[in-house]
From TrEMBL:
Pfam families: DUF525 (PF04379)
Domain spans labelled ApaG: 3-128
Protein name: Co2+/Mg2+ efflux protein ApaG
InterPro entries, A to Z: ApaG_domain, ApaG_sf
Source superkingdom: Bacteria
């Protein structure tokens, strides 16, 4: 598990290899990740958007920006957490992701970023 804390918000990431399949006549490697966002601060916060940098060892860097996470903009009270799972397709057996969440403190409308640490993907058979 990879973890990082920014302004009292703890991000924890677990990754998994989900398998291989063909898409558009090319082999792809599917990876999953589960992220837990824990509010260790004293104020409720809301996640409003996300920014991802996806590294594929055989492709260019891919940048993704979007609203919330998996269709939600969770409000996380002090001491609570929000967990979600998602996935990533790569054209190689090795890659990584990092990024940040844009958050707002609900008591004073302060906007801030919470950094997501770099987490790596590797198919088990790729590293012998």
């Amino acid at each position: 598990m990879i973890t990082q804390v920014t302004k009292g918000i703890k991000i924890s990431v677990n990754t998994s290899f989900e398998g291989t399949f063909f898409k558009n006549y090319k082999m792809h490697f599917a990876f999953g990740y589960t992220i837990t966002i824990e509010n260790q601060s004293k104020a409720p916060v809301q996640l409003t958007s996300r920014h991802w940098q996806i590294y594929d060892s055989l492709n260019d860097l891919e940048i993704l920006d979007g609203e919330g996470v998996i269709g939600k903009k969770p409000v996380i009270k002090p001491g609570d957490s929000h967990t979600y799972s998602s996935g990533c397709l790569l054209t190689s057996t090795i890659g990584a992701m990092k990024g940040h969440y844009n958050m707002v403190t609900l008591t004073n409308s302060e906007k801030f970023r919470v950094y997501i640490p770099t987490f790596k993907f590797s198919a088990p058979f790729a590293l012998n």
